[in-house]
Amino acid sequence: MGTIAGPDFTEGPHPRQLSKRGWSLLGVTGLIVVVIYWLVVAFYSTEGGSSFESSTDSVAAGIEITFEPIGLSPETSNASFRVVMTSSDAAIADSSGRAVDNIRVTVLGPDGSQEIRIPQGTAFGRAEVVLGVSGEPAQYPLDTYSGVYFVTADFYDRESGGANESKGEIPIIIASSGAVNGWDSLLTAATTGSSSVILGAEFGRAFSTKLFALVLLALATIVSLLALFISILVLSNRRKVEAALLAWTGSLLFALPILRSYFPGAPPIGAAIDIYVFLWTVVMAFISVFFIAVAWVGQRGAELEAVHIQEEASTSAT
After folding, report:
1. 197 with 190: CB under 8 angstroms?
2. CB atoms within 10 A of CB 112
3. What is the rounded end-to-end Cα distance, in angstroms, of the chain?
4. Strand pairing of 197-205 and 183-191?
5. Closest CA to 192 of 148, 129, 155, 146
6. Res 193: pLDDT
7. Within the chain, which residues score under 70 in pLDDT?
8. What predicted TM-score, i.e. pTM, was given to this entire model?
């Protein structure tokens, strides 16, 4: 049974035709690249979307409220929504789309409530609300965020002293549109048995964000392992130390932290990727520099000692 022989580097590089084995390996590699490229493009084409699910009962009259997610900040645990309100009910809006009475829409979340007021005679429009979400940024890039909110609408009268008295609840219909760049979002709506609606929001990082972060993390790990492997060969005196090799491994100590800042939407230092992976790539890079420096000192010392012995032998011979 024959063995697979690798290239003979002792002969030096020289042009030659690819063998059948080389063409086969090139073809298989090309096929794998095409399949991976197709999978990445297929997943990318479906990312960043926003889906909506509703289990609310349809109502013939009321206010239709459309929630459009426009931003998500994991650092502050807040999600921003654009709220667009319309109504075709004559008891709520006139023919020109203006409120026939004072109306307020209240969104209650875990971090408090926000009110959107539509005074009598003003047109229905849109507003922006910032609502709290819960999640763990340290799980980047697999972190997810969610929130549950209660949405209600009612007529109100403004009494003396600044107090607002509710005059009756208004049925509402929840809808959703739009998406946040770099995030996949899912909004759900469910009734509570009254005119209020429970709105649920879930956010997860888009496929391209996850892929880019994991690829950069894999590249940092592979390069660090490669540097460590070469440094072990040099330290064990299996390879000769070269100035370019020392410069390359030393530059990794500065390149890896810069690479960390290229992660899309990267969280502050201390995330799980730092503790489990990235910290150890920096440690491996430092060990590589240390091993190569020790090997350089040893090999350079041996060369100087050999020169010194040769000089002494020449002096003795004369």
Report:
1. yes
2. 9
3. 59
4. antiparallel
5. 148
6. 67
7. 1-14, 43-50, 55-60, 160-163, 193-194, 318
8. 0.80
